Amino acid sequence: MGLRRGTKMKKFMLLIRGEGEWDKMSPAQMEETIKKYSAWAKRLREEGRLLDAEPLDRAGRVLVGVDGVITDGPFMETKEMIGGYYIYNAADLEEAVAIGRDCPTLAYGGAIEIRPIADYS
């Protein structure tokens, strides 16, 4: 599913939500899972879609309200944790979702959120 020629591409962010089965995996299973993420990212890169991708550490803080009250976090429950992100190009939200369906997170019980990146230019 390469880039569509002549179509103005839009940026989308795919957020990896929750840990899925990660904590239950053996080191060998974790290594195999990382290979699947790497292969998926490599394919997106070769298609000219992938703009950025990074895993996120569990450490962090959440600032809330006018006073910026700091809470432990960045999550209230592990299932809500954002574990990483991908930023990639797609023609529209439907194509961005189609690309996201191949994200390895889904095969391991995790969830993904796909959001268009607003273009105010």
UniProtKB/TrEMBL annotation:
Domain of life: Bacteria
Alphabetized SUPFAM superfamilies for the sequence: Dimeric alpha+beta barrel (SSF54909)
Signal peptide as annotated in the record: none
InterPro entries linked: Dimeric_a/b-barrel (IPR011008), YCII (IPR005545)
Residue stretches making up the YCII-related domain: 28-119
Family: Belongs to the YciI family.
Annotated protein name in UniProt: DGPFAETKE family protein
Lineage of producing organism: Bacteria, Bacillati, Armatimonadota, Fimbriimonadia, Fimbriimonadales
